Amino acid sequence: MSTFADPIDRIVAGNRVYAQTTAERDPNAFEELSKGQAPEILWIGCADSRIPETTVCHCKPGELFVHRNIANCVHADDINAASVVEYAVAHLKCGGANAALSDADLGTTLNTWLHPVRELRRKHRAELEKLPNDDARAVRVAELNVHQSIDVLKQHPAVKRAVAERGLSLHGMIYDIGAGQLRLLEEAGGKKGNGLWSPANK
Questions:
Q1: How do the domains of the chain map onto residue ranges?
Q2: Exposure of 84 by Cβ count < 10 A (0-12 exposed, 13-18 middle, 19+ buried)?
């Protein structure tokens, strides 16, 4: 049984253990991961929590490019799956947040998928221009995207019901690839983010 009452505290503590043990085994591991990715396999899998693809395949971070959903379905009209496939096949060497820093033509599917993130970039242009470089801007765009995604999730009927009926707690995080660590985002006022979102990559 877990010693943590809060599941978010448990995963953050677990991440600290992971980051420390990985760095002890290979001091250059996170630096190498932060340089980019070149996986040879696109894994389209089920979102089932019992089947973590890197664990069951005994793979390291960076070896699989992953898309997971309910019953590992790929539908012709699913822009999410289509954008993952296009990204994996045609644009794997660029990061999602980095790709949103420009209006480069990435193909119809990715252009459509990244449109909301690019709109965020435009909306926050003045703030982003004050940052020292594209790496810092990509991190901030990733943070803004998580916050926006949280706002969208708050409006989802199932999330609204769960918050009202059983006090669902939702949190936004950023994963710093170069450090191997998760960072909980805070809302204005210094509170931990009240939203559910997969950790975005820094």
A1: 124-202
A2: buried
